Amino acid sequence: MNEREIIEHIASLGRLESNSDLVKGIGDDCAVVRRDDQRAWLLTLDTLIESVHFDCSFHPAYKLGRKVVSVNVSDIGAMGGTPLFALLSVGMPPDFDQEWFCQFSSGITDACYEYGVLLIGGDTVKSPQGLNFSLTLIGEARLDEVIYRSTAQLGDTVWVSGPLGWAAAGLELLQQGKGELGGELEPLFEKHRNPRARVSFGASLGRSGLIHAMMDLSDGLATDLAHLCKASGVGAVFDAELLPGKSLLCQATQHIKKDPVDWAIRGGEDFELLFTASSESESQLLAMAQEFDLRATPVGRITQDLGVRMRRRAANGRLVEEPVSYTGFDHFQEPGKRDGK
Ligand SMILES: [Mg+2]
What we know:
The protein is α+β, with helices and mostly antiparallel strands and 341 residues long. Helices cover 32% and strands 26% of the residues.
């Protein structure tokens, strides 16, 4: 089973009692629960495990604390919501480094403060091996302003809120012991160690009424756009030339031999927003992104043909389309055994 099949299996068991206050259960960035006639609670949880999500040898404790918060806040922003409360679960070996933990905690509390989140509880447990952290976040939005991934419309423009592939490239450079390169490549390292959630922009998009579907990019454009398309019953085509942030990826390829487009569409942990909107909204969306110092970029469009395709120029100069659905990051999929559907 891959990651998607595991989630589909749990959802298919159907043992969830129906509840008239549940608006959206499994299958989006957050669960949505009716709070009153006008408002909704947004609920989400994310876990970071040592050796899977982070390596303490090149991830400073303070930035890791910040990241635990940001990756969760990102899911609230992806539904157009505002984060409010957090519950933190900490699993650490009995011989944990207290100085390390103090810095990590400062990262957690500083990030909570900056995103306007109140840490209201949690759990602390002994871990037999390695560190692991889970954060549950509770946010809110107006019921009619929640943006789902399942409502993209035919002909919509597909947007991303910022550069793609930077975190994956930064991680790969760090794993290969090239962290001292710094300088111009520092934004790649920072994107892996300390990503910023686009939550204010997401809430603003929700309020704007301009966009049709949205989610955040955690597993790479190839997989996340496929999720959005499948949920919406549509397909999409995007243009490799239009993917933002490629010049810095090209610089990274001077140190690691790799196709920069691979990082951009298959690398995880971008934590940028992926959203769709009518082409008529383009100038308004560009202006809105500018208010948040973001360079939102239209990269493709929603199509009737199912699946996700990437258009790029082949070596002979001709434009070709290749299927790329679900070829991004998956915790349970062996590399090289992607289904490509
Ligand atoms: Mg998400």
